[in-house]
Amino acid sequence: MKLKLGLLALSVSALVACDSGIDPNSPVGKRKAIFKEMLNVSEDLGGMLRGRVPYDEALFIEQAAHLDLLGRTPWQYFPELPEADKSSAKADVWEQQEKFKQLAREMEQATANLVASTQATPIISSALKQRMQAVEDSCESCHQAFRAY
């Protein structure tokens, strides 16, 4: 499974680089690849909880942990100063650093809470749904404030 995740990450990175003309090794390229992978994992988790994808408890637990790890990594790829590269980030990311960092911490807490719900025995479906919704809400609140559409 880890090999599959690694191959998926490499594929996503390559697709992001090809589609956008962005250097995959640049900060923008790296964070776009991470965000795209976060979206894919989040959609799979949400799909399992909403019945669009067959629920697999072991896979859900593994993917929730992976999402938590991913959710802690993109922030290092936002440089101190605005960048010249093509980005979906609004200038507000750099103008409102404290708010941006707070929303990042909230998302990290939401994914940590999701993982904590997978550690309870038995796993309670309603708790997973509530925690997954909190993850999705945290992503959306940051996008509303800081992503240029």
Automatic annotation (TrEMBL):
For this UniProt entry, the molecular function terms from Gene Ontology, in alphabetical order, are: electron transfer activity; heme binding; iron ion binding
Please state the span of the N-terminal signal peptide per the UniProt entry.
Answer: 1-17
PROSITE patterns xrefs = CYTCII (PS51009), PROKAR_LIPOPROTEIN (PS51257)
- Please give the InterPro entries that the UniProt record associates with this protein: Cyt_c/b562 (IPR010980), Cyt_c_II (IPR002321), Cyt_c_prime (IPR012127)
Q: Which GO terms describe its cellular component?
A: periplasmic space
Q: How is it modified after translation?
A: Binds 1 heme group per subunit.
BP-aspect Gene Ontology terms: electron transport chain
Q: Name one Pfam family in it.
A: Cytochrom_C_2
Coiled-coil ranges per UniProt? 93-120
Which residues does heme c bind? 139, 142-143
* Xref: SUPFAM superfamilies: Cytochromes
Enumerate the UniProt keywords alphabetically.
Answer: Coiled coil, Electron transport, Heme, Iron, Metal-binding, Signal, Transport
Q: Which domain of life is it from?
A: Bacteria
- Nucleotidyltransferase as a keyword of this entry, yes or no, is no
Q: What is this protein called?
A: Cytochrome C
Organism in which the protein naturally occurs: Thiopseudomonas alkaliphila
